[in-house]
Design goal:
With 84 residues, the chain is mainly alpha-helical. The chain is built from three helices and two strands, in the order αααββ. It has a two-stranded antiparallel sheet. 2% of the residues are buried.
Protein backbone atom coordinates (compact mmCIF):
# COMPACT_ATOMS: atom_id res chain seq x y z
CA UNK A 1 0.00 0.00 0.00
CA UNK A 2 1.33 3.43 -0.92
CA UNK A 3 1.36 6.15 1.73
CA UNK A 4 -1.12 8.97 1.36
CA UNK A 5 -0.07 12.60 1.43
CA UNK A 6 -1.25 13.02 5.03
CA UNK A 7 1.03 10.17 6.13
CA UNK A 8 3.99 11.67 4.27
CA UNK A 9 3.29 15.03 5.91
CA UNK A 10 3.16 13.42 9.37
CA UNK A 11 6.45 11.58 8.73
CA UNK A 12 8.05 14.86 7.67
CA UNK A 13 6.75 16.67 10.79
CA UNK A 14 8.06 13.86 13.00
CA UNK A 15 11.47 13.97 11.31
CA UNK A 16 11.61 17.76 11.65
CA UNK A 17 10.57 17.61 15.33
CA UNK A 18 13.29 14.99 15.88
CA UNK A 19 15.99 17.35 14.62
CA UNK A 20 16.20 16.49 10.94
CA UNK A 21 16.75 19.78 9.12
CA UNK A 22 16.07 18.60 5.58
CA UNK A 23 13.23 16.31 4.54
CA UNK A 24 13.58 15.63 0.81
CA UNK A 25 10.48 14.30 -0.91
CA UNK A 26 10.53 12.86 -4.42
CA UNK A 27 7.24 12.53 -6.24
CA UNK A 28 7.16 10.74 -9.56
CA UNK A 29 4.15 10.54 -11.90
CA UNK A 30 3.93 6.76 -11.38
CA UNK A 31 6.08 3.90 -10.11
CA UNK A 32 8.67 3.93 -12.88
CA UNK A 33 9.33 0.21 -13.16
CA UNK A 34 10.35 -1.34 -16.47
CA UNK A 35 6.86 -2.74 -16.98
CA UNK A 36 5.07 0.52 -16.14
CA UNK A 37 7.38 2.47 -18.43
CA UNK A 38 6.67 0.04 -21.26
CA UNK A 39 2.93 0.34 -20.72
CA UNK A 40 2.98 4.14 -20.57
CA UNK A 41 5.22 4.39 -23.65
CA UNK A 42 2.61 2.46 -25.60
CA UNK A 43 -0.34 4.36 -24.14
CA UNK A 44 1.28 7.76 -24.75
CA UNK A 45 3.12 7.01 -27.99
CA UNK A 46 1.51 10.09 -29.59
CA UNK A 47 3.16 12.28 -26.93
CA UNK A 48 6.90 11.79 -27.49
CA UNK A 49 7.88 14.85 -25.44
CA UNK A 50 6.03 13.45 -22.43
CA UNK A 51 7.62 10.01 -22.85
CA UNK A 52 11.04 11.64 -23.16
CA UNK A 53 10.40 13.59 -19.94
CA UNK A 54 9.43 10.37 -18.16
CA UNK A 55 12.58 8.64 -19.41
CA UNK A 56 14.60 11.50 -17.95
CA UNK A 57 12.76 11.20 -14.62
CA UNK A 58 13.29 7.43 -14.60
CA UNK A 59 17.03 7.91 -14.25
CA UNK A 60 16.37 9.73 -10.97
CA UNK A 61 13.77 7.15 -9.91
CA UNK A 62 16.27 4.34 -10.52
CA UNK A 63 19.06 6.09 -8.60
CA UNK A 64 16.78 6.77 -5.67
CA UNK A 65 15.33 3.24 -5.53
CA UNK A 66 18.84 1.75 -5.75
CA UNK A 67 20.52 4.00 -3.18
CA UNK A 68 17.69 5.27 -0.93
CA UNK A 69 19.70 8.41 -0.28
CA UNK A 70 19.11 12.05 -1.14
CA UNK A 71 19.49 12.86 -4.81
CA UNK A 72 21.60 15.69 -6.11
CA UNK A 73 19.59 17.37 -8.86
CA UNK A 74 20.59 19.92 -11.47
CA UNK A 75 19.39 20.88 -14.93
CA UNK A 76 21.60 20.64 -18.00
CA UNK A 77 21.77 23.00 -20.97
CA UNK A 78 19.00 21.04 -22.75
CA UNK A 79 16.65 21.52 -19.81
CA UNK A 80 16.88 17.90 -18.67
CA UNK A 81 17.29 16.84 -15.07
CA UNK A 82 20.67 15.46 -14.07
CA UNK A 83 20.60 13.23 -10.99
CA UNK A 84 23.70 12.52 -8.91
Amino acid sequence: MKPKIKEIYLYAIHARNSGQLKVPVYIFPFEMTYQNMSNYKIEYKNYPDLVSFWENLKSGFDKFTDRRTELGISIDSNGDYVFR
